[in-house]
Amino acid sequence: MKSYTEHLWFNTAKRREYINITREVENVVRKSGIQEGLCLVNAMHITASVYINDDERGLINDFDEFLEKVAPYDKAKYRHHQTGEDNGDAHLKRQLFGREVVIAITKGQFDFGPWEQIFYAEFDGRRRKRVLVKVIGE
User: Fold this and answer.
1) Number of folded domains that form the chain
2) What range defines the domain where residue 91 resides?
3) Strands of the 109-110 sheet, one edge to the other
4) Is 0.90 surpassed by the pTM of this model?
């Protein structure tokens, strides 16, 4: 068994963004040379997520509206802000969307269902962030 690791870096222009990273992750898998195995894609920041879903703009807007209703951005609302931070909402959003995804690789390709795509979700952006991609297998 072998493994291959690479980091993807992002600078987002807005506080919240949803970026389709499927092609970038597929390129990492291709570089790894692994034909049968697993690919872990992990947000390396506690205010960001990686998730799998459909790349449909209306759905992405629905996600964003849902998250804002559940954990609205409000500088005064969260006890976490007493530490000098203003991103309590981003931590909660990350908990809802999760930290990482694992995708099966068969014959060098992702075993995706119809419409599945990999997204990086940023909830406290406007600075440099990274995603870990680790491919293991043969």
Assistant:
1) 1
2) 2-137
3) 2-11, 128-137, 37-43, 100-106, 109-110
4) yes
Reference 136, options 37, 27, 29, 41; nearest CA is 37
Name the DSSP class of 82.
G
Q: What is the pLDDT of residue 135?
A: 98
The residues, ordered by sequence, that sit 6+ positions from 62 with a Cβ below 8 Å of its Cβ are: none
Tokens representing 128 are 């440099």
Contact status, residue 8 vs residue 100, Cβ threshold 8 Å: no
DSSP string, 6-34: EEEEEE-SSSSEEEE-HHHHHHHHHHHT-
CATH number of the CATH domain containing 26: 2.60.120.460
Mean pLDDT (whole number) for 32-50: 98
Q: Are 83 and 109 in contact (CB under 8 A)?
A: no
Q: What is the DSSP letter of 89?
A: H
Q: Following CA atoms 5, 102, 41, 134 in sequence, which dihedral angle do they give, to the nearest 10 degrees?
A: 0
The enclosing H or E element of 63 equals helix 57-70
